[in-house]
Amino acid sequence: MRKTKQLGVTTALALIIGSTTAFAENIKIAFIDPLSGPFAATGTNGLHQFEFAAETLVNAKGGVLDGQMFEVIGFDNKISPKESLIQLQVAIDQGVRYIVQGNSSGVANALTEAVDKHNKRNPDSRVLFLNYAAVDPALTNEKCNFWHFRFDANADIKMDALTDVIAANEGIKNVYVIGQDYSFGKAVAEAAEANLAAKRPDIQIVGNELHPIGKVKDFTPYARKIVGAETDAVITGNWGADMLGLGKSIIENGFTGPIYTYYAAGSGITAAFGEGGKGSIRLISEGQINPPPTEEAAAYYTAYKAKYPDGNVDQSRISNTIGMLAQAIQAAGTSTDVVAVASALEGMEYDSMWGTKVYMRPQDHQAIQNMHIAVHTNEGVTFDYDNSGFGVVAESTIEMAGMDSPTTCKMERP
Predict the structure, then answer these.
(1) Is the pLDDT assigned to residue 10 strictly greater than 80?
(2) Is there a contact between 318 and 49 (Cβ–Cβ < 8 Å)?
(3) How many C-beta neighbours within 10 Å does residue 372 have?
(4) 9-153+295-368, what's its fold?
(5) Residues near 197 by beta carbon (within 8 Å), at least 6 away in sequence
């Protein structure tokens, strides 16, 4: 992750001679997510955002401690838990001490268990798992462990915020819930049922179903059932190709109501929805893009687009993850003692450029931050996604969402 610049002959030779040592001192961060297959676009965009955050927020400022630089290394897990465990071991064998992953809670569940077992058996090569997007509530509840930190709000926190908005809309009487058939999709469905029953018992859930993840080529049968149920709103936790396929099919089959989503932006999704998704697609997220909350955020997004013209900063939590890790390493005074780094992360308050403070709750390692519900539109858009002219504009904000949310985590500390 070094910057290119002109060097004198003596300096250049010194760097060549000492290059092996300098490389070894880099703080390696393994990105374990899909870089091939149906979710490759989502994974590749995430990798680029991690690389850019490391370069911009850490390396360009001289690194951490005595000048150690962050080095992000991509590992293709093909969205498979089994392949993820193989890549985890490869990363550990390469001296990696920090793992980042976010696409698929099924993968995250496998990784967090493997990291916990590895750290117990290998105290000299412990690793931390920095989860930037896998939001199965179990990961910070009954499956919590000291080595796992989540930088995104979990599915329950997000659904609590979403259903506040739905409950306030008296025009919504019927809701259809649909998602991917794995732990996260099930968690979204359960949270939707519970929250709507508590906040608006008059709302009927006219459909609640799951579909195979990454395998449905044509969502028309699902869309026709949704439209046929005369629903007023749709809730889905779908992401990647499944979000795009489902959303487009629902709209193309005549549905004009709100579609409340978790991941319906960027990675080609915004451009594909285009005019058809205007005013219908709604997204809950932790970062406000439009209007830009700070000058730093606006400059960051502009610089990212200059480097990756076809990319998007659609996961602001990625820069928060890198920034908080750097802050924790600096506070701990070490990058190799991950127990000290984890202890520094616990209870951390981080001033994010995205207009919110991020608090890492120590009892369960769940990040607490503002949640925004935004609408897909081409009006009032400072920063669009996919060079489409369309983006997401915040309509409402829930400050420090989930601060008092319950947890069943009983964490064992080393």
Answers:
(1) no
(2) yes
(3) 26
(4) Rossmann fold (3.40.50)
(5) none
